[in-house]
Amino acid sequence: MHVLHIVGWYPNHLKPFETPFIERHVRALDPLCTNTVWHIDVRQGRRWGLHRRSLRADRTLVLTTPLRRWLLLEWLATALVLWAWATRPRSMRCDVIDFHIPYPNCARLDLLRRVMRRPMVITEHWSIYRLGLKSGARGLDRIRRIFHQGVPLIVVSRALADDILDFAGPPHPPVHQVANAVDTALFSPDGSAREPGRFFAIATWRYPKRPVLLVETIALLRARGRDARLRIAGGGDELPAIREAIVRSGMQDHVTLIGQAAPEAAAAEMRRAHALLHASDYETFSAVCTEALCCGTPVVASHVGGIREYLTPALGTPVARNSAEEWAGAIDRDWDRLLALRPEALAEAIRPLVDARLVAERYVAALRTVAAGPKPARP
């Protein structure tokens, strides 16, 4: 089967570490499908620019624009998708088109279906439906219409499916659930000794992540007499706030910012950690939590969204409330229990959900269902 993936977010030369979980989702299919990836995105910026250099996509069209009206951005995104389609190699086969992150690329989905005339599916990862779309905002009906046209939907968790269906309302599309994929050859136990008190956190630090809470938690743990240290990897808009919190709490010697971490470095950090810490107001899945579990490292995480569907006390510590006091108390209480959890048992427990080969089988089964469905009529 030949799949064309049109992705709104993907690693690129402007942001090399952007949404690696989407790339892993796509690449998991490589043994089972022929994949073509187009990175098409319209982004607000200070000036006009078209970025076509690609790191790993087969084609990249990232348009930056000073325009602020979302209706105009939607039409620009539609125009880019149609232009890419019109200028594709005529020898390119395409059995199904998979749109990852459908807004704004799919804001004119009815037009795309009439022109492209291929079976389509939407794969969504974004938490915006729970956190960022206010019910009274103008233009939301254009987003809701994306999900009213019968195009099947693939989501990474039941929580995300509920968020989208609640936001869009009926009629509901067919829904398939396919978890994020983890490279379990890379993220796996290797016999490394976990170091008591050494915690690790990694993310693109922006809302709804809560990195400042983690710094405050380390300060409280140390005040309780625990030799707690935290290593934080990743970039993002919250980095200045993290630095300010480190200084304010006097944690300069105990909280270390290590910058962006390649997957190999992140896996090594996870294996050495007492636990992975992940504080967030919401998550549709959290790939980093499952990567840590695949490494045999327990997870302490906010009990929200898709995390609730797999994180149990047997795999770490779900934290019910996002306050430093709650977090410090939970880690202090479970300090020894977390260290006693066996790496191999943690990895074996999470692997059936996220192993890339198993994810690919579920993913391709959904795509084959879409490809075998009714063919779009010619206009």
Describe this structure in words.
The protein is of the alpha/beta class and 379 residues long. It has two domains: 2-181 and 357-371, Rossmann fold, CATH 3.40.50; 198-354, Rossmann fold, CATH 3.40.50. Helix content is 37%, strand content 18%. It has 13 helices and 14 strands. It has an eight-stranded mixed beta sheet with strand order 3-4-2-1-5-6-7-8, sandwiched between helices. Helix 7 (211-223) packs parallel to helix 8 (239-248). It is globular. The model has no long low-confidence stretch (mean pLDDT 94).
Summarize the main sheet: 8 strands, mixed
Low-confidence stretches: none
Q: State the helix count.
A: 13
Query: From the 3D coordinates, which CATH architecture of the largest domain would you assign?
Result: 3-Layer(aba) Sandwich
Give Rg in angstroms: 21 Å
End-to-end Cα distance: 25 Å
| Beta-strand percentage range | 15-25%
Whole-number total of structural domains: 2
Shape: globular
Mean pLDDT: 94
Strand adjacency order, main sheet: 3-4-2-1-5-6-7-8
Compute the number of strand runs.
14
* Helix proportion: 25-40%
CATH hierarchy, class of the largest domain? Alpha Beta
Q: SSE string, helix = H, strand = E?
A: EHEEEHEHEHHEHEEHEHEHEHEEHHH
Instruction: Classify the fold: give the CATH topology of the largest domain.
Output: Rossmann fold
- SSE-based structural type: alpha/beta
Name of the CATH superfamily of the largest domain: Glycogen Phosphorylase B
